Amino acid sequence: MRFFIDTASFDNIKEISSWGIIEGVTTNPSLVSKENLSLQEIVKKITSIIDGPVSAEVIATDYDNMLKEARELHSIASNVVVKIPLIEDGLKAASTLKKEGIKTNLTLVFSVNQALLAAKAGATYVSPFVGRLDDIGVDGMKIAGDIVEAFDYYDLDSEVIAASIRNPAHVEEAIKRKCHVATVPYDVLKKMVEHPLTDIGIQKFLDDWNKKN
Ligand code: E4P
After folding, report:
1. Are 100 and 122 in contact (CB under 8 A)?
2. Residue 21 burial (C-beta neighbours within 10 Å; 0-12, 13-18, 19+)
3. Which strand (E) or helix (H) includes residue 136?
4. pLDDT tens across 149-172, in order?
5. Chain centroid to CA 134: how far?
6. Centre of ligand 1 from the C-alpha of residue 203, in Å
7. What pTM value is reported for the model?
8. Are 68 and 58 in contact (CB under 8 A)?
9. Which ligand 1 atom minimizes the distance to the CA of 55?
10. Residue 1 to residues 6, 38, 51, 89, 183, Cα–Cα distance (Å)
11. CB of 114 sitting under 6 A from ligand 1
């Protein structure tokens, strides 16, 4: 499973990419709004240090303006993936962008039906929002796993990004469910590194070493 980082913070991306484990970035309008730069400036900065796919979302919800924004975002760098909401115009836009060779990430996906439609429309990535499903009492990771199985069974090319990840347990479940990618927030990535037995183990090694030296 590949790891993307789910943030628009350049500093966070820079810090975590130094670990050598990040293969892409996802942003969304809420994440971009937390930064002091425009979406275009943010995408430019991120793509200057990340070679893998960098998802940037359109704001428009109608076909013509989605296409206009998508083409503008893609002109910033060739590794920009255009994030499009799973609505009727979004499907239409995704299928046009596929013909233009522009990669898309169909976002705000909450069901297997929506995911299948996205894949048929030619989405490069499909992002089920696991945490937001959990919030309404639906097992989000089960939906993500069902989507992976359906894509596999029907031999569809789209990749599943487990999104709206809230904790390290979500990430472990995404691995078990064979999601192609998990897009993980900065704080969850930090928590994934930590284990109390690692800290206790280091301390014991140092104590034993210092007794003898
Ligand atoms: C994914 O592409 C989205 O940016 C993100 O995972 C949404 O997560 P949230 O539900 O925590 O806002």
Report:
1. no
2. middle
3. none
4. 999 999 999 999 999 999 999 999
5. 17
6. 37
7. 0.96
8. no
9. 2
10. 15, 31, 18, 30, 10
11. no
Measured by CA distance, the residue closest to atom 11 of ligand 1 is 164
Ligand 1 binding pocket mutation candidate from 26, 104, 129 (most atoms within 8 A of CB): 129
Q: Letter for the amino acid at 81?
A: V
For 96-145, how does the pLDDT look when each residue is reduced to its tens digit (9 = 90+)? 999 999 999 999 999 999 999 999 999 999 999 999 999 999 999 999 99
User: Which of 3.40.50.720, 3.30.450.40, 3.20.20.150, 3.20.20.70 would CATH assign to domain 2-212?
Assistant: 3.20.20.70
- What's the confidence (pLDDT) of residue 213? 83
- Counting Cβ atoms within 10 Å, is residue 11 exposed (0-12), middle (13-18) or buried (19+)? exposed
Domain positions in the chain are 2-212
Q: Is the CB of 127 under 6 A from ligand 1?
A: yes
Give the nearest ligand 1 atom to 30 CA.
12
Q: Catalytic residue positions? A: 83
